[in-house]
Amino acid sequence: MRMGQMPKGALLHAHLEATVDAASLLKIALEYPNVCIRAPDVITNESIDSVLPDFLALPAAESYISPATITSQYYVPNTCVSAQKARNEWPEALGGPQGFDAWVVQALTINPREAYETHNTTTKIWNKFVSCFTVIRVST
Fold first, then answer.
1. Does 120 fall in a domain?
2. Residue 90: which domain range?
3. What's the confidence (pLDDT) of residue 22?
4. 3 part of a folded domain
5. What average pLDDT values come out for the chain (140 residues) when binned by 10 residues?
6. Is 4 within the bounds of a domain?
7. CB neighbours of 81 closer than 8 A, spacing ≥ 6?
8. Edge-to-edge strand list for the sheet holding 54-57
């Protein structure tokens, strides 16, 4: 083949964070007691689709122990809670621990329904894309 005739391949552009399976990333994060989660509002049936998680890795587990988890009416917005605690205390009304996993994975990915139906404009899909990277970044 001459120069310029070689195929480029399937992967032309990728963000390293987007190449990791979201469920695997969550599983790894939950193995560390110093990984905490916070949210800008209490997670309820009404807010779960619009509130994004924010994960942080803190130096000491004691520095974020909160009496209320992110689904409690007593939760103070943007307060750090152990990710393990948040998952373990995720209400059955929101799907229990598996509901927590689904909420996090949904925040980290763009599913086909979003890509082709609900986020079907450039602006909407770009906002979803940016929100995925906001969740996956390591905050300090």
1. yes
2. 18-136
3. 83
4. no
5. 61 66 89 90 93 84 73 93 94 97 86 64 64 55
6. no
7. 36, 37, 38, 64, 66, 68, 69, 70, 75
8. 54-57, 35-38, 81-82
